[in-house]
Amino acid sequence: MSKNPYNDGPLIVFWETTKACELKCIHCRASAIESRSPEELTTEEAKRLFNQLTKFARPPVVIMTGGNPLIRDDINELIKSASYLGLPVAISPAVSARLNPDALIKLKNSGAKFMSISLDGLSSTHETIRNVNGVYQETIKAINNAIKAGIILQVNTAVMKVNYLELPKIFKLIYDMGVKVWEIFFLIQTGRGSELLDLTQEEYEAVCNFLYDASYYNIQIRTIECPFIRRVLKERGEGKSYASPIYKRLHEDLIELMGKPSSSSTLGKSGTLDGDGIIFIDHKGVIYPGGFLPLPIGDVRHDDIAKVYRESPLLKNIRARAFNGNCGSCKFKWECGGSRARAFAYFGDPLGSDPACILNA
């Protein structure tokens, strides 16, 4: 295997700007709170973090997430600071009264190149998940306003028991709205994420094969905590078929809504894992391999993040694919690698096998 391209630095740095948020989503990773914490990184501490990130040879994309980053009154100043240093900035705001057309223009003018907005289902499903009445229509409005503002927009959808059969209709909706990137989050049992929301291996496999089909309609499809979709991409590309009643329903709904596809797949053959191209910093400055893998490996208030990323024993093992169990011996471990966060959530072992993958039955 050739040298891992992410040994020296991450592709993406997630920064949890705050845990405060107006929403109370049933699957919230951050277990968001109503008010800002006094332990958050200050404006100056955040700027020092951005300077640290410039030590990487390739400037990583900084994704400002939360909570709701718009709750910070210095958010535009911070975006300007990171952009001035040459760091591409993306922001992931919650849909609230703060996400209005004026705010979108300010975010774009400050240097935010990308934005993600979450849409987890149609009408009542989305509102059940987000725990706020009226948030579905506000979300549709926010997506349209962001596109009008000229921001490169990505729609995020968290897949769970209550919404996975709606995926074809969600796809049709965002396709018609002109969205070009769809990112699918596969649930991890952290924060408010509950086992009752999680899919079975067979359901995950059906969803992955559906996403493979959907990737032929000229929308870029990305996944979070679902690296085994790259195994599905390889298998389907080699002519292997997949059949199950769930997949049949998802596939037929997709064809009925979209017609026959005409482009090539937008799925990537390689990608990132927690600690392998990705690193996460929480609102207090604690460094983790990823947002869903709660194992502290450093603190930006006291540690050099570049040194932590390059020298953490856990991250080095992840990047070397030094896994235990089936993931360690799997022939797809370099394309895939399994979700390190899910292995930890289920088995307490971040180097263990991913229980969502059908090969680990």
What labels would you give this structure?
eleven-stranded mixed sheet; alpha/beta; 13 helices; TIM Barrel; globular; 361 residues
The fold-level CATH name is TIM Barrel
Helical percentage: 25-40%
The CATH class assignment is Alpha Beta
Report the major sheet. Answer: 11 strands, mixed
Distance between the termini: 27 Å
Describe this entry's structure for a reader.
The chain is α/β, with parallel strands linked by helices and 361 residues long. It has one domain: Aldolase class I (TIM Barrel, Alpha-Beta Barrel), CATH 3.20.20. It has 13 helices and eleven strands. Strands 1, 2, 3, 4, 5, 6, 7, 8, 9, 10 and 11 form an eleven-stranded mixed β-sheet that branches. The longest helix has 14 residues, at 135-148. The protein is globular. The model has no long low-confidence stretch (mean pLDDT 93).
Reconstruct the topology from this structure.
Layout: E1 12-16, H1 43-53, E2 61-65, H2 75-84, E3 89-91, H3 101-110, E4 112-118, H4 123-130, H5 135-148, E5 152-159, H6 167-177, E6 181-186, H7 201-214, E7 220-224, H8 229-237, H9 245-258, E8 273-274, E9 277-281, E10 286-288, E11 298-299, H10 305-311, H11 313-319, H12 325-329, H13 340-347
Parallel strand pairs: 1-2, 1-9, 2-3, 3-4, 4-5, 5-6, 6-7, 8-9
Antiparallel strand pairs: 9-10, 10-11
Helix pairs in contact: 1-2, 6-9, 7-8, 7-9
